[in-house]
Structure formats: C-alpha cells, structure tokens
Design brief:
InterPro entries: Hid-1/Ecm30. This protein has 864 residues and is mainly α. Among the domains are: 2-99, no CATH class; 113-207 and 218-243 and 253-346 and 357-368.
Length: 864
C-alpha cells in the first residue's frame, strides 16, 4: 500500500503541462482565457498590492478544475507505465491511495478487517466520493486480475449490512458504515452484471469457499443483501421514526420488527401519517438506489433472453419469502401518490429549500414500475384462467378495491402529471417534476393489472385530468426524435382508454383550461382538443411517428360514435387529414397508406349515423369538401395513372398547414411554444426490434350493436427518451404494421421495391365505406344550394343554423355496428415496455451515473 500527498496542489500544478492538456478539449480562444485566469492575479500584503508572478493564480476558481485535469492525466500515465499494475487507485483531490502489488497478486484474507474497513471509512460522506474514488477501469481490472478480492469485497460489504441489522443499526458510526457499503455496492454491481461469468456470483458459493462452509451459509449472498436492505428500510432512527413502545434506551430487533407499523406514508392501507425527517428520506433513497441497481441485471441481457430467465433479484424481492413485501409495496405506492411538489405554494420555495422527498419519490417510482413489470404468471395456456401472480407487488396492486384508495391513487396521478402544466404569473416560481415518463408507465401498469381502477377512472371526469397532460406531452414532443418513446407510451395509454365507452362520453365535457400548447384557439370540448393535437402530430410531427398514425386514428374511431358536438376547428382538421391522405400519390406510395383513409371514413360514418344532430359543423365541412369524397369514389385504377401520380409527387411528407379553403391561420393558445427539434446528445441508443400486435377477428361484445376487435400497434424498433443532460436514445422505425383492411398485394420491382398494381387498388377501393357520406351529400347538398339561392345566404352561420335543425332520419343506410378496437398485450409490447422503461431509468440516473459506460445489452449505446 502506498499513499501520496501533493502539497499545495492547486497553486503548484505545472501550468504549461496543464494548459497543454486543456488545449485538447477547448478552442484556442478558450485556452487564452484559461491562461489569463490561471497566471494573472493580484494580492494585498503589508499595505501594498502585488502581482503574482509564479505558480497558478491563488484563489482562482479554475485551480481545482485544472488540478483535476492534471491529476487524471498523471494517474493514466502512471498506470500505463507501471511494470506492476495497481490493484486499486483511490484519488481524492491531492490525496492518492494505491494498492500496488509486487509480483503476482495474492488474495487478501477476508478476516483482515483492518484492510477491508478502509473501503467503508467514515471519511467518505457522499455517493459522489465513492464514484470518484472507485473508477470503472479499476473495478474491471479487479474483476479480471484479482477476482477473489472482488468477491471478498462484495461479501464483506454485504456482511457489514447484515451485522448492522443484527445490531439494529443504532449508532452514527454504524449508519455511516451502512451508507458507504450501500454506495460501494451500487458502484460495483453493474460491472459484475456486465460479465456473464460473474452474473451468478451472488446466487452461488463464493470463489474459494469450501462445500462445508457453503452448507453453513445456505442463503445466497443476493438474498442476504435483499433481506438486509429491506430490514434497513424499516430501521427506527435510520429510515423511519422510532416507535418508543419498548422504551427509549432499548433498540428494536430489526429481524423481528413489525414493519407494517412503520409504513412511510399514509394512504392505501395505512391511515397514520408518520413524522417527516429529511435524513430518513435521504437514507431511504440511497438504499432504494442499491435495490434498483440489483434489479438492473435485466439491462445486461439481450431482449431475446429476458423472457427466458426471470430476474431472480426481483423474483425474491416480490415473493412471500420477503416478509417486508406488503409494507414495502405500500410505502412505495403511498410515497409516490402522496407527494406534492408545490407544498404550501410559496413562490420559489424550491429554490430556497432543498426537497429531500423528490429524489425519494423518483427512485420509489422507478422501483415500482420495475417490480410491476416482472410478471411470470402471464404465460397460462389460452382458455385457462391465469394463476395468482407469484409477484406479490402485482397481486397487491390488483387487489386494491376501495373507492377511497382509488381516489387517493388517482389524485396522486393527476396532481403529478399536471404539475409541468401549472401556469403562474411568476416565471419558474413552482417546482416542476421530471418523472412524467415513469408516471405514465405506472399508470399503464395500474390500469393493466387492476381493471376496477380503470373503470373507476373512466366513470368520472377525472379521466380528463389524465388526458390533458398526455396530450400536452404528445404535442410538446412531436418534433423531437429523442422523445419518440414518450410519444408511444402516451398513444398506447389513450388507445387503452379509448376501448371503453365511458372515455368517449367524457370527451364531450367542455374544455376550459389554458394549457400552453401551440394549437389553434378554439371553443369546444376535450374531443376537439384530442383531434386538434392529433392533427398537429400527424402534420408537423417527426417522420419517425408515421408508424403511430394507425394508432392515432384508431383512437379517434373508437371515440367517434360518442362525440356530440365537434367544433369547426376540429371538423376542419379531420377533413384536412382526409384530403391529405386521399391524394393519389400518397395512397399509391405504400401498401398500407389506404388504411388511414378507411379509418377516417369510419370516423365520419360513426358521427353521421350516431351523433348527426349535434354535429352541424362537421356536416357543413363535409359538404364544403364534398369533392374529396367524389375524388375517392372515382379514384383511377389503371396502371398508367398510378405511375403518373407517383412520378408527379414532389415531396413525401404531408402538408403541415391547412389549405386556404379551410379555416385560415388561427392564433395559437396563450403561452404556447412550438415543439423543439432534438438537441444534440452525447449518447445514442438503438433498441432491437419488437413485433407488432396481430389483429384478431372481430367478436361480439357484451354491448348490443358494438363489435370489439384487437387493435394493431405499430412495430417499433426502439425507444426514444431524453433528459436535461443531453444523454439521449434515438431509434429507427419500421412500417411493418398489420391490418384487416385490404391486402397489401402488389408487384415487387428492382431492388425489392414495392409497386402498386391496378388489381391491388381495386381490391380495397371497392370496399371504401362511402355509402353513408354519399347519401348525406345527395340529400343535403341540393337543399343547402337551394336555400342559399332562394334566401341569398352568404353567411355560413345561417347555413349552420339550417343544418342544426335538419334531419336524415329514414334517409341514411341502416346504422352499422359500432366497432371498437381494443388493445391487447403480447410478448412484443411487453418487451417494448421493458426496454423503454429501462432506457428511461438509465438516462434519469446520472447523479450518480450508476450505469454510465457499462456494457448494456438491452439497448445499444453509441457515442455521437
């Protein structure tokens, strides 16, 4: 062991060498500024001012940064040139501690406590120190060159946690030791997971351990670690407030404690509100970070493997062997749902006081979605009833049934999801949370596992408090390729909700909020908001969103039979979409583009057949745009016209603004801003392909006249998310979507390019559902033209008034059954959600950067 200490490091760093290092990272102009700041300063001594002419400028704010540059370079050169590579290199400012073996590296005995205790010394007081003192190359070198020492290090750290539990973790010294062991394991575990040969280490006997010793210690190290963490998460005076039933001087036995009495927050299943302590919040957060790191073994497996072998860490944490499973689940759920980022509402309070609860809520939410994603009971043969989930977290979530509990959970969702939308007169005066993506995943899981909660949400107008923030995020993210994953989860949730009749009915509630979105100002309902935002996504969104068009229109189809009064703005948007999608070049350019026209025609038919009376705006717009429908009915099918249409097109993308025949340019909503393009990132991750959902044949639902069908989700080849660190994931999309609307037959040209044929066009053109609309035009157009001529009407409001009092009873074809396309999960979407979820967690955990620069297999990370 060798210890180095640099005297007066900050002012004695060699200036020339340091500036040479800086020049590798900055431009010449910046380098000149560095040189000036580092070499120029004045100081006052003996009543006079003096100019410093030697060494680095005293008290320069850059001295520490330059010293770090120099010491990092010194470390790398020293290690590269060393004949014997150091076993460990711990460096903190000017102090360097090196374990330098001479000759072959020998295993260090586990009983040498004086050596191992250095790793959880009280001198280290925060997690950033651990990540600085234990760099990645040293962990990998230890893993490859001294595996027995790495194994012993992990074993001793877990042993310390177990002993702390045995002693009830009473003293400050024990608590600091526990925190440092937790930080060290959080740092080391990802590098154990990235090596397949080490992945089973925590679940088997230690290297070099005899069978007799293994028999004595029957519990795998992983189970000992999980058990110790759970015990410590309900440790009085460390992570929870003490319950002094046994007297102030007697500590409770953590292994026998009833942790249900120490649930962290009032809410579901627990009425008592415990006292709040920031130190307890901080300690809980660090322990939960270690739990999350344990669960992250999934990130180091390819997508094809994650269904083969379950995550044993999550399996043990959520099984009946963990006696803390129920209070742990309840504590996590209540902590998330009870959190109020605004607090007392004092402006700028988040800038004046640190919030110890937000990091806890952030990590608790990530633990929840990770554990709820681990469902090993969903593979029951078709026709058989699914077994009770082995995962107790899923079991507990599915069994919540009291209305007051649903109200508490739903209020938590709406409060947190709407937090970024809160408008104040004072800019940035309220705290904005950043975990909306995790919240959306959690909401998805809640609705998926607890149908009673889904129906509770849908039976009240509170579902609109979920809808509006989702639409806000969809609109805000539409042009940012780094947030395509957020777009997917938002659309999937809306597809799930749209499969229920109550959602469509609730959309008729007037929309009066003032959310800052760059959409036209309108007076109308939440249905108008939904249509307007979807139109914006389709016409001005990123090109990678094109696979979502089917989903967006499926949502509108599902709700269309219940929309009572569409505004003129929304009506015009729908007709504009039909106008854009029905152009010959667009219809002929892809084997699936005609599906979009079918969806739009189905929307119009549903509204005309079931909600004609209140939708004079839409009827008027259809009459004005009747040429679009006539053109569709007379779409040319000969090959010459098809080829001519394809060669005449000048651009591949849809128009981004409404035509002049539609309503003119409308002002955007107050406070809105256009969606921003993707910011340049430092990381790029592309995820593997996941299959789309296969459409099933229609089956009659319980509701007469309503047919349900499984919805087809797009095939996605990745997720996209972003956070403020410019670390980002990007993706490429596939347009391989399934549908039941017409075959995708055609010719294959040179290079495998698909070419439309006359037979292909005829195969779906004859199925276009135009009868209802054509009958409407046949009846109403002559009437409208007649009153315009007879009364000299030029004001559209008069025509609308006429249409409002008109009727088509007995004139239209017999109403068709309402077709509802419901979402149904499969292994493809399960893989997508898991990959997206871990991608978000990877990006959000940058302080400390737990998984940064490790060999992740679930998605690809590339430097850009």
């Amino acid at each position: 062991m060798v210890s180095f200490d640099v005297v007066s490091l900050f002012i004695r760093v060699p200036s020339v060498e340091s500036l040479n290092l800086v020049s590798k990272h900055f431009s010449e102009d910046t380098l000149a500024l560095f040189r000036h700041v580092l070499t120029t300063t004045y100081f006052f001594f003996g009543g006079q001012f003096y100019k410093q002419t030697d060494s680095v400028a005293m008290d320069s704010p850059l001295s520490r940064i330059i010293a770090n540059f120099f010491m990092e370079d010194f470390k790398e050169r020293a290690i590269q040139q060393a004949t014997h590579k150091p076993l460990c290199w711990f460096w903190y400012v000017e102090d360097t501690f090196v374990i330098w073996p001479h000759g072959p590296q020998k295993p260090i005995d586990a009983s040498d406590d004086s050596f191992w205790d250095q790793f959880w010394s009280e001198n280290v007081t925060n997690v950033q120190d651990i990540f600085t003192l234990v760099p990645a190359p040293e962990i990998r070198a230890l893993r490859e060159e001294a595996p027995s020492n790495l194994a012993t290090l992990c074993y001793k750290a877990v042993e310390k946690l177990v002993k702390a539990v045995d002693n009830s973790c009473r003293t400050h010294h024990e608590q600091q030791t526990v925190l440092n062991c937790v930080r060290l394991l959080t740092r080391v575990l990802p590098y154990i997971f990235e090596d397949p040969d080490w992945r089973g280490f925590f679940w088997s006997t230690l290297p070099g351990q005899s069978q007799d010793e293994a028999a004595v210690q029957s519990m795998p190290l992983a189970q000992s670690l999980i058990t110790a963490i759970c015990d410590l998460l309900f440790c009085p005076d460390f992570t929870v407030a003490a319950n002094r039933k046994s007297g102030p001087d007697k500590a409770e036995d953590l292994q026998a404690i009833d942790s249900c009495e120490y649930i962290w927050e009032a809410g579901v299943g627990f009425a008592h509100s415990p006292p709040h302590c920031p130190a307890h919040d901080s300690n809980r957060t660090e322990l939960l970070k270690l739990l999350l790191t344990c669960f992250s073994e999934t990130m180091y497996q390819p997508p094809v493997d994650i269904h083969v072998a379950p995550n044993r860490w999550i399996q043990y944490f959520t099984c009946a062997e963990n006696r803390h499973a129920l209070p742990m689940f309840t504590s996590l759920l209540n902590t998330v749902c009870a959190y109020d980022p605004v607090g007392l509402g004092v402006p700028y309070n988040h800038l004046l006081f640190s919030d110890s609860v937000e990091p806890l809520v952030d990590t608790a939410l990530q633990i929840l979605i990770v554990t709820l994603d681990h469902d090993t009971s969903g593979s029951a043969p078709e026709g058989e009833e699914a077994a009770v989930p082995d995962n107790l977290f899923i079991n507990y979530l599915s069994r919540i049934h009291r209305d007051e509990d649903f109200q508490f959970v739903l209020r938590g969702f709406t409060k947190l999801l709407n937090n970024p939308l809160v408008q104040t007169y004072l800019p940035n005066s309220t705290k904005k949370v950043q975990f909306h993506q995790e919240l959306l995943v959690f909401f998805w899981k809640m609705c998926d596992y607890n149908k009673k909660f889904l129906y509770y949400v849908l039976k009240s107008s509170d579902v609109l408090e979920i809808l509006v923030p989702i639409l806000y995020h969809l609109n805000d993210s539409r042009a940012d390729q780094s947030r395509v994953g957020l777009m997917h989860i938002g659309v999937f949730i809306l597809l799930l909700l749209s499969g229920e009749r109550n959602f469509g009915v609730r959309l008729n509630k007037p929309y009066t909020a003032t959310i800052p979105m760059d959409i036209p100002v309108f007076t109308g309902t939440h249905a108008d908001l939904l249509i307007t935002v979807f139109h914006k996504i389709i016409t001005t969104g990123h090109q990678r969103l094109q696979p979502l068009f089917d989903c967006l229109l499926t949502i509108l189809v599902n709700v269309s039979p219940y929309l009572k009064t569409l505004s003129m703005v929304a009506s015009t948007k729908l007709l504009h979409l039909l106008e854009a999608f029905s152009t010959p070049w667009f219809l002929f350019s892809s084997p699936t583009n005609h599906h979009l026209v079918f969806f739009l025609l189905e929307i119009f038919n549903n509204i005309i057949q079931y909600q004609f009376d209140g939708n004079s705006n839409l009827v008027y717009t259809i009459i004005r745009k009747r040429q679009v429908f006539h053109s569709l009915a007379n779409l040319p099918c000969d090959y010459g016209t098809i080829a001519k249409s394809l060669t005449k097109r000048t651009r591949r993308h849809l128009p981004s603004t409404t035509s002049t025949e539609n309503i003119g340019e409308l002002p955007s909503m107050e406070g809105s801003r256009p969606a921003l393009p993707a910011e340049p990132g430092t990381l790029k991750a592309t995820l593997p392909d996941t299959p789309g959902i296969v459409t099933r044949s229609a089956t009659v639902s319980d509701t007469p006249g309503i047919v349900t069908r499984t919805a087809t989700l797009p095939a996605t080849t990745g997720i996209v998310t972003r956070n403020a660190t410019s670390i980002r994931l990007t993706e490429a999309h596939s347009l391989a979507q399934g549908s039941s609307i017409g075959p995708a037959a055609g010719m294959v040209g040179p290079g495998g390019q698909w070419i439309p044929t006359s037979d292909w066009v005829n195969s779906w053109k004859t199925k276009l559902p135009l009868q209802t609309i054509m009958r409407l035009l046949q009846v109403l157009v002559p009437q409208v033209e007649k009153i315009c001529i007879d009364k000299g009407l030029t004001d559209e409001s008069e025509i609308l008034k006429f249409l409002q009092h008109g009727t088509l009873v007995g004139l239209l074809p017999v109403p068709h059954p309402i077709l509802i396309r419901k979402y149904q999960a499969n292994s493809g979407t399960t893989t997508w959600f898991r990959t997206y979820m871990w991608g978000v967690i990877y990006l959000r955990n940058v302080d400390p950067p737990i998984w940064y620069d490790t060999d992740v297999k679930l998605f690809e990370i590339q430097r850009v």
